Amino acid sequence: MAEFQEISKLSALHPKPAGLVLQYGTSGFRTNAKQLDHIMFRMGLLATVRSKKTKATIGVMVTASHNPEEDNGVKLVDPMGEMVTQDWEEHATQLANADQEDLLTALKNIIEKEAINMSQEANVFVGKDTRSSSASLSQAVLDGVSALGGHSKDYGLVTTPQLHYMVCCQNTQGKYGEATVEGYYTKFCQAFIQLTKNTSNRTDDQKHLCLDGANGIGALKVREMESHLKKELQISLNNDGSKGRLNHQCGADYVKVQQKPPTGAHRINPGERCCSFDGDADRIVYYYTDSEGTFHLLDGDKMATLISTFLKELLTQAGLDLKIAVVQTAYANGSSTHYLENTMKVLVRCTKTGVKHLHHVAQEFDVGVYFEANGHGTVLFSKAAEEKIQQLAEDTNVNDERKKAALLLRNTINVINQTVGDAISDMLLIEAILAIKGMTIQQWDTIYTDLPNRQLKVKVADRRVIDTTDAERRAVTPAGLQEAIDNLVKKYRQARSFVRPSGTEDVVRVYAEADTQESADALAHEVSLAVYRLAGGVGDEPKPLH
Ligand code: G16
């Protein structure tokens, strides 16, 4: 076939470094940008084949999200805007790791296995973040698409969730919205304005939000969006990319893991409502400092709690019997799970890390609220649930309370990006809920009190020696590690700890929580030492935190 000759020729321009092996991780390939040119070309090929298979538009986003500036990565987006399926992750790994001379064979194997009709048209949407390496890497994706004769549309600089949205809009013939950045702002900002329009006692203070843009794409896009908000939300933008480095001592991951405000932000006034995006604006965390200067973090768990409480109340007021559930990961603070299950009486499910896992579980419910503690999440409404809400909102024979609740639910659906966790859409949703409930960030914070916790990273020679089970809450290998963790946990009150290999960085992650910060820190350090000793730690032994 003519296109295969073209691939041979063009792939030589994107050669694979000999011996380099990369795995499709938590949300795609991710490593130092210098090692990724061949991966991008090959993911262009794969996305084209996937498009032919699904007879739909596929998305490819060039980003390494929360990683440092020098890294880059790629996320593949399936037709409804969700992450690519697991069997295609395996195809991606095979194609990525095929030696240069075996690339065509690897590609043909996928085409054969998936029974692809190569005469089918293919469409691929491509987006990129603000990293300096993203321009040439996204060009490599476009080269891969054209090598197989596919059509591509280059959206240039967009947030990851914006690209997910575009793909979904395109494949649903505009039913989800218009597949343009303008269409995105119009859809979500209009819903926000509708939601907040009857909260007339909202003061200017309540309309003001301080945002840390992580010096990334989210900052650029919030600037672009601002006029659509018609001053109903006034954003003081810090870390807008004009001077600081991407994700450097700022952004959602830094704030969550370090449990402190970002640098580069203006001096935060006591009680001021603040939030941070991550590098590709698919995560958000909120925070404030109190009058004593103590920092308070409101992470994905607190957002899931606020959102699910709000939705549950509205469903009750609307008289709709719809099943709502919250999906979390092992990182969810024990207090949040306890509150959701015992006070709110909401069904809680736990999955492995990675929004792709949470998304699929959330799809099993009428209303599935899913959030990782790191601030990555959204809400999914089943088609049946959306229809019931829509019918009630249009019904002229229902009482005012039910009608009002149905209208609020309908606008809430419209402010949510259901394709994937989206910092911009989540921010608008949280801001709307706080406005409707007349709630301050302090009041939101007191819904429950987090157990003190600590996250650490340990460098090992090969993080794949750690295998886990039970939604990553227990380590199966290396031998003796889980036993060591169990014995350490027993020393502390209300304690819990687990370890897992990261799917985005070359480290092992350690999580610990306990009744005091000192205990959580000590436990995290002791578990880190166990990982270092039993899983082949490299470099210096982890040092105590205090
Ligand atoms: C990605 C995933 C998230 C995950 C995070 C960290 O986020 O989309 O679901 O929680 O990586 O994963 P890990 O602990 O495996 O490194 P992002 O925002 O970096 O794309």
UniProtKB/TrEMBL annotation:
Instruction: Write out the pathway annotation from the protein's UniProt entry.
Output: Nucleotide-sugar biosynthesis; UDP-N-acetyl-alpha-D-glucosamine biosynthesis; N-acetyl-alpha-D-glucosamine 1-phosphate from alpha-D-glucosamine 6-phosphate (route I): step 2/2
Listed A to Z, the keywords are: Acetylation, Carbohydrate metabolism, Isomerase, Magnesium, Metal-binding, Phosphoprotein
PROSITE patterns, per the entry: PGM_PMM
Enzyme nomenclature, EC number: 5.4.2.3
Q: Which GO terms describe its biological process?
A: carbohydrate metabolic process; hemopoiesis; UDP-N-acetylglucosamine biosynthetic process
Active-site annotation: 65 (phosphoserine intermediate)
One annotated GO molecular function: phosphoacetylglucosamine mutase activity
Free-text cofactor note = Binds 1 Mg(2+) ion per subunit.
Show the stretches that span the lipid bilayer. Answer: none
Q: What domain of life does the UniProt record list for this protein's source?
A: Eukaryota
Q: Where does Mg(2+) bind?
A: 65, 278, 280, 282
Q: Where is the Phosphoacetylglucosamine mutase AMG1 domain?
A: 179-285, 299-438
Query: Domain Alpha-D-phosphohexomutase alpha/beta/alpha, which positions?
Result: 52-100, 112-167
Show where the Alpha-D-phosphohexomutase C-terminal domain sits.
457-528
Spell out the reaction equation it catalyses.
Answer: N-acetyl-alpha-D-glucosamine 1-phosphate = N-acetyl-D-glucosamine 6-phosphate
Which Pfam family, giving just one, matches this sequence?
AMG1_III
Where does the chain bind substrate?
372-374, 500-504, 509
Q: Which cofactor does it need?
A: Mg(2+)
Task of the protein: Catalyzes the conversion of GlcNAc-6-P into GlcNAc-1-P during the synthesis of uridine diphosphate/UDP-GlcNAc, a sugar nucleotide critical to multiple glycosylation pathways including protein N- and O-glycosylation.
Q: Which family does it belong to?
A: Belongs to the phosphohexose mutase family.
Question: What protein is this chain from?
Answer: Phosphoacetylglucosamine mutase
Q: What taxonomic classification does the UniProt entry list for its organism?
A: Eukaryota, Metazoa, Chordata, Craniata, Vertebrata
